[in-house]
Amino acid sequence: MLALSGLAASHAQGNAAQPHFPPRAKRVIFCFMDGGPSHVDTFDFKPMLRKHQGVPIGPRFVTKRSQSDAGRVWFGSPWNFARRGDSGLWVSDLLPSIAKIADQLCVVRSMVGELPLHGQSNLLLHTGRILGQAPSLGAWISYGLGSENENLPAYVLLNNDWVPNGGLENFGSSFLPASHQATIMRAKGNPVDNIQPGESRQSQQRKLQFLNRVDQQFAAEASSSAAIEAAITNYETAFRMQSTVPEVADISREPDYIHRLYGTDAADEHQRYYASQALRARRLIEAGVRFVEITCPSFDGNNSPWDQHGLLKQNHEKNARVTEQAVAALIVDLAQRGLLDETIVLWAGEMGRTPHTPAITETAGRDHHVSGFSLFLAGGGFKPGIAYGETDEFGNSAIVDPLTVHDLHATMLHQLGLDHTRLTFRYGGRDHRLTDVHGNVLNELLS
Amino acid sequence: MAMDFWRRLVRTPDDFGRLGERPSHPELLDWLAVNFIRQGWSTKQLVKMLVLSQTFRQSGQADVAALQVDPANRLLHHFATRRMQAEEIRDALLTVSGKLDRRLYGRPINPPRAVEDDTKRLFSGPVDGHGRRSIYLTMSIMAPPKFLTTFDLPDLKLPSGKRNVTSVPSQALQMLKRSAGHTASGPMAEALLASGYTNAAERLGAMFIAAYARMPQEQERAQWLAYVDELSGSGDATSERLVWSQVAHTMFNTQEFIYYR
């Protein structure tokens, strides 16, 4: 299994390319809910909010981890909640398809972030540091485990050239070798940059054969040939990728029932886009990709889709319509294929949303909030049908079992067979790791 | 590039001092430091002195006996084979195609982007950058120029004394790509055909000088001329311009094009 990193040169001091202990899971699909879906409107049922609708929150509930002030008022959820499935997990009507599979979900309701800002929170979620300057979760996993398929990258980002808050650094490799950064795959047109050859296959093959000969001669004469030999191999790999990548990205031959399950034939074009990317994600992990991340489509010029400072009802509904059927479909599809147990599916935004608002109006929204928010995991050995942690009666702050992104990362790496304290890389005079100097593996989340 | 060569004096420039490696030539390093202060802290003068030095001007041919004593070239007995950095590769493509704009200063130019985003001030520029050197590309920490990141442009927020040199398929894909290579190979072919060289051997020689700074050896000339013949005879290159454009594109994709030795 040749990892796609080729022969990375330079100061690659670190342990890599195999798990530290037998893994429970082999791969991750991260459904990134960019902008921050509201926790009190999805998984964190807080009837007190409706009871105290319009009442000022007072100074006790003001925190630097939330865009808050004492004069803001409690804002009840526009959606009803119900207990779902055998587990009885509370899920709102905003996410009907996801509610149906509540018994598969490991919901976390006590996430705590550092700053209620997009860029920093995004970077924290993705790289473990609010300032970034560190590799992405996907890059660390690529570094730690390599790819199972030499013709595909280990880390694929299903995006459409959108740059999220915090920048492409969210998906980058930083000081890790560049082979570990995300390869962006689009839904339309050229799936991967430069993948369509600019000439006929015959013309290209002639060129590649000639290049191979010339480069072998050059390698023989060079004083350090390892990197050149790696480059020669990469031309061969690039040639193979030109057929492998489009083939994996092609969802057209999936059976009808799969298309209906995901919703690739939906009326809404953004929903069609997201459904096709979710289906692509399944195909990619089947082909051996380790880490697939799917970003939400931006629309109406809003590049943080879930960031509803206003128009909460209309736009959260829109975001839900675009994404939630496909997310549920992905989990169901993986389960049907016997892949869910070894695939960690993560549904998370970089923040939650304030359970309070400046004033109750038709167009009211919720603002940034990281003092207590929700996310869920499915598969990969995470305990299904449970809710871990709690926020206070207003959903304002995590009060039972608070955890951070570092704990989440440590636990995910653990399931992949990686000890987060041992997956390190030396840079700038010290050993770095995804969790920096933090993080605990939370066994209560695991089955 | 000068700094990179001389960085071999200390192999760990990101850990300069107690945590890093000891320098290979400590007295030389001290002398350089003292001299730097004495001459008035001019980086320009320092660089000029380094590139005019005998050590720096050595050829890349390694002496067999010397290699046996010092295979890692710690003592700088020849100019080590190393790959060009991202900006150098882009600038080299501009240079050989005759498109390089050598003017200094002026407004920066945006790199090409698939999608613009004015909330993040991410705008798109021409693929050939109007010939401007890479140093004039607008650097956005949100989304740095793709051509450069493919060739190990470091994370713009991280101070990097020494760049990674990775070898990845995306580099091959990028160089094989129509626009990256062909934006240079077309103009290079045109310039070649306009230059007055009429026979293939002469044209090949001119291209070797431009791309590799040397003339081809006998066996290489034969090999490349056979390739030219094959291209001319195939259905894929239906004009002289297309044939030589393919030859240029092939040259840009050889490892020698992006390596120093």
Protein topology:
The complex is a heterodimer of chains A (447) and B (261).
Chain A: E1 27-32, H1 47-51, E2 73-74, E3 81-84, E4 89-92, H2 96-100, E5 105-111, H3 118-127, H4 137-145, E6 155-158, E7 183-185, H5 201-221, H6 226-249, H7 256-262, H8 269-286, E8 291-295, H9 312-336, E9 343-348, E10 352-353, E11 356-357, E12 368-369, E13 373-378, E14 386-388, E15 390-391, E16 398-400, H10 405-415, E17 425-427, E18 430-432
Parallel strand pairs in A: 1-8, 1-9, 5-14, 6-7, 6-8
Antiparallel strand pairs in A: 2-11, 3-4, 5-13, 9-13, 10-12, 15-16, 17-18
Chain B: H1 2-6, H2 26-38, H3 43-52, H4 64-69, E1 82-83, H5 86-96, H6 146-150, H7 169-176, H8 178-194, H9 200-212, H10 218-233, H11 240-253, H12 255-258, E2 259-260
Antiparallel strand pairs in B: 1-2
Main pleated sheet of chain A: 8 strands, mixed
Strand order of the largest sheet of chain B: 1-2
Strand content of chain B: under 5%
Tally of helical runs of chain B? 12
- Structural class estimated from helices and strands of chain A: alpha/beta
The two chains with the largest interface, and their residue counts, are:
A-B, 68 and 68 residues
Helix content of chain A: 25-40%
Give the percentage of residues in beta strands of chain A.
Answer: 5-15%
Can you count the helices of chain A? Answer: 10
Q: Name the overall outline of chain A.
A: globular
Structural classification of chain B? mainly alpha
The total of beta strands of chain B comes to: 2
**How much is the average pLDDT of chain A?**
92
Radius of gyration of chain A (CA) equals 23 Å
How far is the first residue's CA from the last residue's CA of chain A?
Answer: 30 Å
Head-to-tail CA distance between termini of chain B? 13 Å
Low-confidence stretches of chain A: 1-15
Assembly type: heterodimer
Biggest sheet of chain A, strands in spatial order? 7-6-8-1-9-13-5-14
Q: What composes the largest sheet of chain B?
A: 2 strands, antiparallel
